[in-house]
Design a protein that fits this description.
Order of helices and strands of chain C: EEEHEEHEHHHEHEHEEHH
CATH superfamily of chain B: MetI-like
Structural class of chain B: mainly alpha
Distance between the termini of chain B: 56 Å
CATH class of chain C: Alpha Beta
Oligomer: heterotrimer
Number of helices of chain B: 9
Radius of gyration of chain C: 18 Å
Largest sheet of chain C: 6 strands, mixed
Shape of chain C: globular
Structural class of chain C: alpha/beta
CATH class of chain B: Mainly Alpha
Number of domains of chain C: 1
Largest interface: A-B, 42 and 44 residues
Helix content of chain C: 25-40%
Strand order of the largest sheet of chain C: 6-7-8-3-9-10
Shape of chain B: globular
Largest sheet of chain B: none
Order of helices and strands of chain B: HHHHHHHHH
Number of strands of chain B: 0
Distance between the termini of chain C: 39 Å
CATH architecture of chain B: Orthogonal Bundle
Chains: A mainly alpha, B mainly alpha, C alpha/beta
Chain lengths: 215, 227, 247
């Protein structure tokens, strides 16, 4: 049996960089797909609203783990063998898009209706209304919950470990396989996750208080 | 695409899926019930407790909410057994899910409890109700009614998150899927089926929670207005 | 208890909120069957005094006794006794919004007085009759007007058969026409011999119904006396000015 050493901890911290990278990929992908989805959810077209709604309902009603298995093992069987990083990135994008779309829909709808009416009276077309009046206000409302959701993303990247991607959680399992000190190792792994997530949680709460105070 | 979809394995293996889904239901109903109790007690402690108690609950909530469920499950199953406390996979799953559920419930119920005005407590006090009676009859139900949508969402999320317990080989729905796909090499079909089962379970849980809400919140059922 | 005995005794009560002295040596007595009106400007300490009698605030010095039992002492037995003796009605009604009118009234009867549901329901019907709201027994608070809610709150208190009822500006949140219906119920109670202490802005009500008027000013009992005397011949400039401004 190998003694748990500083090298192991260094290894874990280095693996945490992949956790951060995966989180950034998930957030970027989720935002790129989530914003159009959010706009579809508030669109005037019932078809667009319906499509976006079905997507969101299906993703929010399926475990992320199953989405991961489908993109990695499922697509692999179908002949599209994806690299674990690509499969994970794809799954997290699908997942984050659904949740971000719901969060942002709420924020767009939280902009008072009179803002639409006022900008309409000024002769702005719908695209201009969105770009200059609605979205800038929605972004302010959306920032705290979005930062809060990033905590969920970081934590959920731990699931990439089950398809063999070596991020923080997987690195923890690897170290445990050689040292057999699961309690200490997973406590350290948990602490590293905490170190990433807690500042985001605090920032989210802080932003929310500030937003409420400004109102 | 040359792949031919084949769902024939279902004819033989469907009882496995039913058994897996049933264990998922058992694990999650138990964790939701226990986690709700734990979280409600913690929320009461967070609002009405002394500074030390409030601090302890705060640390618990932050520690759980800022670390992955997967790691929490590993600590309970592998970690505790290495310290000599050996729990079965199912019991470990319930413990980890309960502790996780409790932390989220604490935050949600805290908001509900704080929304109950102090004057309501004074009125109950003046009528001679004890603190416990006041909490049970005056505070909890309206507090719960106010946060019931958030609570329901969290319950459904926990049911979905229970799939993670497959990683400590609790034989629930996702673990069943892993097993069947390794026997049949039909991973795509297997996971699609399981995804559909989870969607159905989500719908079932939402419906059940809605029905429970109707029973619990009599005023709401009769008047239809928010509290 | 013999006729004329003091139901509430208040002696040299001091109440401070931080550096602020809200009650500065207040004292008077209320005898059985008496209706006492406490009047004064906002900030004079009158509501605080009532809350002290109800046991909702702790006092820094002095003594309050209700039916011979000290108030504001630690110990649940004393508290339980106080709750049996004193009924309190608030400015903001404080009905329980998730319960029907009937359940609002029966809650304490079943939980505290350990009555059976049937007994409690019968009592609820009785007291609702007294405040003229028999037909609202199945309604929820939000379905009632402010005046009706306040009458239910009075009935809820009354159901427990307290020795003394406290009213804390119970009409201040109400429109004039709704105020009248609540004051009507209170007048009726006074006529039935209920011992009452009421903090009020309604000078007309105080003149008509109160036996004793307490004028509070700067945390002290500035002037006290039988209603007719006090209003006919105010002794202090402050009370004269107050009465003038309230007319």
């Amino acid at each position: 049996m190998i003694q748990l050493s500083a090298n192991h901890i260094l290894y874990l911290v280095e693996a945490a960089r992949w956790t951060v990278l995966l989180s950034l990929i998930a957030f970027a992908g989720g935002a790129m797909v989530g914003l159009p989805l959010a706009l579809m959810r508030v669109s005037r077209s019932a078809l667009l609203r319906g499509l976006a709604s079905v997507y969101i309902q299906v993703v929010q009603g399926t475990p992320l783990l199953i989405v991961l298995f489908l993109s990695y093992f499922g697509l692999g069987i179908l002949g599209y063998k994806l690299d674990p990083l690509i499969a994970a990135g794809l799954s997290f994008t699908i997942y984050a898009a659904a949740f971000l779309a719901e969060i942002w829909r709420g924020c767009i709808q939280a902009v008072p209706k009179t803002q639409w009416e006022a900008s309409d009276c000024l002769g702005l077309n719908p695209v201009q209304q969105y770009a200059y009046v609605i979205l800038p206000q929605a972004v302010r409302i959306a920032t705290p919950p979005t930062v809060g959701f990033m905590v969920q993303i970081v934590k959920n990247t731990s699931l990439a470990s089950v398809i063999g991607f070596v991020e923080l959680a997987r690195a923890g399992q690897i170290v445990n396989n050689s040292t057999f000190e699961p309690f200490a190792i997973f406590a350290i792994v948990g602490a590293i996750y905490f170190a990433i997530c807690y500042p985001l949680s605090v920032a989210s709460r802080h932003l929310e208080r500030k937003a409420n105070a400004g109102r | 695409m040359s792949y031919k979809f084949d769902f024939e394995f279902l004819a033989e293996r469907w009882p496995d899926f039913v058994a897996g889904a049933w264990l998922t239901i058992q694990l999650t109903v138990a964790s939701i019930a226990l986690g709700f109790l734990l979280g409600t007690v913690c929320a009461l402690a967070r609002v009405y407790g002394g500074p030390a108690v409030r601090r302890v609950v705060g640390v618990y909530v932050e520690a759980i909410r800022n670390t992955p469920l997967l790691i929490q499950i590993f600590i309970v199953y592998f970690g505790l057994s290495s310290l000599g406390l050996k729990l079965s996979a199912e019991v470990s799953a319930i413990v980890a899910l309960t502790v996780n559920m409790g932390a989220y419930t604490t935050e949600i119920m805290r908001a509900g409890i704080q929304s109950i005005q102090r004057t309501q407590l004074e009125a109950a006090d003046c009528l001679g109700l004890t603190k416990l009676q006041t909490i049970l009859h005056v505070v909890l139900l309206p507090a719960m009614e106010r946060v019931y949508p958030a609570l329901s969402s969290q319950f459904v999320l926990l049911m979905l998150a229970s799939s993670i317990t497959s990683q400590i080989s609790a034989e629930e729905l996702t673990a069943t899927a892993n097993l069947v796909q390794s026997d049949t090499y039909r991973s795509f079909e297997v996971y699609v089926i399981v995804a559909v089962v989870y969607l159905a379970l989500s719908a079932l849980y939402r419906f059940a929670l809605w029905a429970i809400g109707l029973v619990l919140f009599e005023r709401r059922r009769k008047l239809g207005t928010p509290l | 208890m013999p006729e004329g005995d003091a139901v509430v005794r208040i002696r040299d009560v001091v109440k401070e909120f931080g550096p602020l002295r809200v009650l500065d040596g207040v004292g008077f007595e209320v005898t059985r069957g008496q209706t006492v009106a406490i009047v004064g400007r906002s900030g004079s300490g009158k509501s605080t005094l009532l809350r002290c009698v109800a046991g909702l605030e702790t006092i820094q010095a002095g003594e309050i006794e209700v039916c011979g039992h000290p108030v504001g002492r630690p110990g649940s037995a004393a508290r339980a006794q106080l709750r049996r003796d004193v009924g309190m009605v608030f400015q903001s009604y404080n009905l329980f919004p998730h319960l029907t009118v009937e359940r609002n009234i029966t809650l304490a009867l079943t939980l505290v007085k350990k009555q059976s549901r049937d007994e409690a329901k019968k009592r609820a019907a009785d007291v609702l009759g007294m405040v003229g709201l028999t037909d609202k027994i199945g309604a929820y608070p939000e379905q009632l007007s402010g005046g009706q809610q306040q009458r239910v709150a009075i009935a809820r208190s009354l159901a427990l058969q307290p020795q003394v009822m406290l009213f804390d500006e119970v009409t201040s949140a109400l429109d004039p026409e709704l105020t009248a219906e609540v004051l009507g119920v209170m007048e009726d109670l006074a006529r039935r011999g209920m011992t009452m202490i009421t903090v009020t802005h309604e000078m007309g009500f105080a003149r008509r119904v109160a036996d004793l008027v307490v004028f509070m000013h700067k945390g002290k009992v500035w002037e006290i006396g039988p209603t007719a005397e006090l209003f006919a011949e105010p002794k202090t400039a402050e009370f004269r000015q107050f009465v003038g401004s309230e007319l």
